[in-house]
Amino acid sequence: MTNQIISLSAYPEGFHDEADELTADMFASDIPLQHSHDYYCDEDLGLYVGVWDTDTMDETPGPYGMEEFMVVLEGQAQIKNNKTGNIETIKAGEGFVIPKGYDCQWQQQGYLKKFYVILDNDTLAPGNSEVDSVALFKTSQTNKVFINEQNTFKAGICNSTEYIKANNEHRFIYVLSGSLTVKSSSHKEQTFTASESIFIKNNEHLDCNISDDFKAYFCNVVV
Fold first, then answer.
1. What is the DSSP letter of 223?
2. Using the 8-state DSSP alphabet, how is residue 160 labeled?
3. Tens place of pLDDT for every residue, the chain, 223 residues?
4. Which three-class secondary structure state does DSSP give residue 167?
5. Which of 205, 211, 220, 223 has a CA between 20 and 30 Å from the CA of residue 46?
6. Residue 1: its pLDDT value, please?
7. Is the full-model pTM beyond 0.85?
8. Phi and psi for 17 in degrees, rounded to 5?
9. CA 44 to chain CA mean position, Å
10. What is the spatial distance between Cα 133 and Cα 22, in angstroms, rounded to a whole number?
């Protein structure tokens, strides 16, 4: 049986051994140096969960081609609204969603590393009709949620087990404070604390316990 609960590290072994293959049409700047590592990949579903880094770059502007939730681990990102010119800055420790269809440009100054959850599926997530900004989540917030128009991609910040116990959904959790203890029929009890991340596959039924001070970023994909 493949692992149904996957622990994610920001420093996977061999992460910088091989750079991503990139092409000039992807950028309005020089081609940057980037690396990525998928902890989970389902090409049929278009679901990818992992860690990624980049140096300075400007992506080619245009509508964003996927639903993507990210947690910034190092550095900061700047996302420009191509219609208004407004630039939003996302700092280390913050989470955010770039909704599919958002007409934007990623403008990166300096190094950045992130965790990502990508849903690239035109059937489950064909796009969002009215998007004028990223969905930004900060550690000072509680129970803020982004849900796409098809109700297939949910992300945000929470202090309960509501989204963790959604057994028919793929679940990514990044613990911000407190602790999360999970146990299932296929996994022994595991406890995760601040700055630790896990990915739980759908149909993995969990017993969950959280501490009183628990808070986490999450991203759920409904299939």
1. -
2. S
3. 467 899 999 999 999 999 999 999 999 999 999 999 999 999 999 999 999 999 999 999 999 999 999 999 999 999 999 999 999 999 999 999 999 999 999 999 999 999 999 999 999 999 999 899 999 999 999 999 999 999 999 999 999 999 998 888 999 999 999 999 998 877 889 999 999 999 999 988 888 999 999 999 999 999 8
4. coil
5. 205
6. 45
7. yes
8. -70, -35
9. 19
10. 26
Q: Six-digit token pair at 41? A: 């990949």
| pLDDT value at residue 2 | 61
Letter string b/e over residues 153-176, b meaning 16 or more CB atoms within 10 A of that residue's CB: bbbbbbbebebbebeebbbbbbbb
Q: How many CB atoms sit inside 10 A of residue 152's CB?
A: 19
- Residue 158 corresponds to which amino acid? C
The ranges of the chain annotated as CATH 2.60.120.10 are 5-139, 155-222
SS3 category, 26? helix
| Cα 68 to Cα 49: distance, rounded to the nearest angstrom | 10
CATH of domain 155-222: 2.60.120.10
Q: Cα(175)–Cα(179) distance, rounded to whole angstroms? A: 7
User: Exposed, middle or buried by CB within 10 Å (0-12, 13-18, 19+), for 125?
Assistant: buried
Q: Rounded to whole angstroms, how far apart are CA atoms 185 and 213?
A: 27
8, 25, 85, 144, 195 from 30: Cα distances, Å: 30, 10, 22, 36, 33
Tokens of 137: 């989540």
